[in-house]
Design goal:
This protein is α/β, with parallel strands linked by helices. It has 9 helices and 25 strands. The model has no long low-confidence stretch (mean pLDDT 97).
Length: 400
């Protein structure tokens, strides 16, 4: 038996597993000849980009509902090491060490929030990086009304005014409706949404102003405690809730590969998702840097992670069986940014030109968050496999 091992069940890893199963199905090759195994720390595929929302009930999909119907083996464990020479992966499974061999490996352990050594941040800060973190924030917010009235009890400070921070801050306005809430968005950059370009940034600023979100730009956080945060300017912001949204970095396990990584810790891959210079190892999603066209590299998003996974899974099978590999190319780029009850903004192109905004863009955002990025939930084997075809989807639907 030959083995394809996939590490991680995020957007890229899940679709790599389904993509590999689809490729084997098309060749009429069963698990008695090639086994596909997915290793993940828990039993869930988390729709991570929805962690900023108030209702977390629907943002996790049981892996069994997607992988069992298509014959992908599941292993719940924490990856601890990789031996490229022996082609095996070390894991902790139910508290015990285990070694899993592979003939082809797809590394999809994603990214994690950068947590700098700011005094008090680890003990007092919140985040939406993981389901556990988002759940902890939900419980914390639900308990605020029961606390004695005090300075900062109803204030939320969001640190990091990139895409995640903006979505958290604008959504937080509604989440604090039961309180006389105050939301502050802070960033070291001189303006909010500094990567969003001249077309979209005024829309974001309009939405923040309409929602009453305050901003602090050109500042950093010097310290955090249970009562708030101190900024680099010396300003003390009383806030019972400090949410850290500043910066992402690839899984630290990318350091196990003998290749030069980029500034985000990502592994360099060719258009087929094979790690440059290696023979049997592929990488997809937030842990990989792929050129998606002639001049642009992939970004850490499900927009690129999902197709990277589909192509990576297909190509792992093709490479193993001596079939032609398929290069991935994506000739379009969009950004659809949630702006809370104000709506959203939909941009196209790498220069992020606004095409819709407000309620119309919000319809697109809901379509993406609630339907487009989910695997088929029917449990039907054929529907699941068909969804993993190594093709590039059309851009998300526009509404008017």
């Amino acid at each position: 038996m030959q083995r394809i091992l996939i590490l991680g069940a995020g957007f890229a890893g899940l679709w790599a597993a389904v993509g590999a199963a689809r490729a084997l199905d098309a060749l009429s090759i069963g698990p008695d000849r090639v086994e596909v195994t997915l290793v993940n720390r828990d039993a869930w595929h988390c729709i991570r980009v929805r962690n900023y929302e108030a209702d977390l009930d629907a943002i996790r999909v049981p892996l069994a509902s997607v992988l069992d119907p298509i014959g992908v083996r599941r292993v719940e464990g924490e990856v601890t090491g990789i031996d490229l020479g022996q082609r095996n992966v070390r894991c902790m499974i139910s508290g015990e060490g285990a070694t899993l061999p592979y003939d082809r490996l797809v590394f999809a352990l994603g990214s994690r929030l950068v947590r700098p050594a700011i005094p008090g941040l680890a003990e007092n800060g919140f985040d939406v990086d993981t389901f556990a973190g988002a759940s902890r924030l939900v419980d914390h917010l639900a308990g605020l009304a029961d606390r004695p009235a005090a300075a900062g009890r109803d204030t939320v400070l969001v640190v990091g005014a990139g895409l995640t921070g903006i979505e958290v801050a604008t959504e937080m306005v509604d989440r604090l409706r039961a309180l006389p809430g105050r939301v502050i968005l802070a960033d070291h950059a001189p303006q909010v949404g500094s990567d969003m370009g001249d077309s979209a940034r005024p829309v974001i600023e309009t939405a923040l102003a309409a929602l009453g979100v305050e901003t602090r730009t050109g500042v950093s956080v010097a310290a955090v405690d249970a009562e708030g945060a101190t900024l680099s300017t010396g300003e003390v912001i009383p806030a019972a809730t400090v949410i850290w949204c500043a910066g992402m970095r690839a899984s630290p396990l990318t350091a196990l590969f003998p290749v030069e990584r980029d500034r985000l810790g990502r592994l360099p891959v060719d258009p087929t998702m094979k790690i440059l210079g290696l023979e049997a190892e592929f990488a997809v999603g937030d842990s990989a840097r792929a050129m998606v066209d002639d001049s642009h590299a992939s970004v850490m998003s499900c927009q690129h992670g999902r197709p990277m996974g589909r192509f990576g899974g297909y190509n792992a099978v093709a490479d193993l069986l001596g079939q032609p590999l398929l290069p991935m190319r994506i000739d379009w780029y969009t950004t659809i940014l949630d702006l809370g009850s104000w709506g959203a903004v939909y941009t196209e192109g790498w220069d992020r030109q606004v095409v819709t905004q407000g309620a119309a863009a919000k319809q697109t955002k809901r379509l993406i968050n609630c339907q487009r990025i989910y695997p088929p939930l029917s449990g039907g084997r054929r529907a699941i496999l068909d969804a993993a075809a190594p093709v590039i989807q059309a851009p998300p639907q526009r509404f008017r």
